[in-house]
Amino acid sequence: MEDSKEIKDSKHLISNIQSQYPRLSKGQKLIAQYILKNYDKVAFMTACKLGETVGVSESTVVRFANALGYSGYPKLQSALQELIKNKLTTVQRVDMAHEYSDDSTILNKVLKSDIDNIRGTLEEVDEIAFEEASNKLLNARKIYILGMRSSFVVAQYLGFYLDIILDSVHIIRMDMGDAFEQIVRISEDDVVVAISFPRYSKKSYQVVKYAKEKGAHVISLTDSLFAPVASIADNTLLVKSSMASFVDSLVPAFSVANALVISVGMKEKEDIKQHFDDLEQIWTKYSVYE
After folding, report:
1. Strands 191-196 and 235-238: what pairing?
2. Taking the domains of the chain in order of start, what are their residue ranges?
3. What is the CATH number of domain 122-260?
4. Angle CA(113)–CA(116)–CA(122) in degrees, nearest 5?
5. pTM of the model
6. Helix then strand then coil, % of the chain, to nearest 5
7. Which of 154, 142, 139 has its CA nearest to residue 194?
8. How far apart are CA 36 and CA 18, in angstroms?
9. 146-157: per-residue pLDDT in tens?
10. What is the pLDDT of residues 201-217, one digit of tens each?
């Protein structure tokens, strides 16, 4: 797929610009020089803004992206964002949010960004990987769900609903002892779902690497093929997550987690109906709900 190739190639973007430099036009060389010095800024510039800053036309910017092998400037911009998003500090992210001038603008931009992220996720997620992940969850001896820092809320959501459907679902919690102690009995019959978004937790990668070495099947729910957990996962479900400010959107991650739960649930339809029937009787008996 062209998009996957462009994502992978972004890892070598800087060296690619350097190697292509001698063959670029005069205007394209100006763009290249500016990007090499300011790629963190260019990652959030429109083609028009980059052209104005460098002193070339917008069409020259587009041709520059094409010369590097990208189908358009947005793909080049995405590649630049892939390079920097895990390196930005929270303070730098706050400084990026200069377009959020008032509450109305914030509400509008954030919701539109979430919509775009879900749409992008739908276009990019690997349906075969999703199907395999669903089947692996269904047949696992035990499921371990890992998400650290802000990713923990997605892990908790996924674990809560999978636990209703399946037996032996364990959410790895940082307040329940060391993470390694919680997965020490993991085996090749087990599955780990690793949820990881920038800034990527080093501990998450270490725990997943240990699980992989023990033979467990690893499903990663993350935003990039460059994410550390993706490099060792058996199935990677890519979730679009553009950087709007100091808070990363987890909305698409919840959507994919929701889809996984429903996919597994539909394969266990009859068992679920009985389980919910039992739960309804308990809820009624103990007045759980109004």
Report:
1. unpaired
2. 2-84, 122-260
3. 3.40.50.10490
4. 145
5. 0.69
6. 60, 10, 30
7. 154
8. 9
9. 999 889 999 999
10. 889 999 999 999 999 99
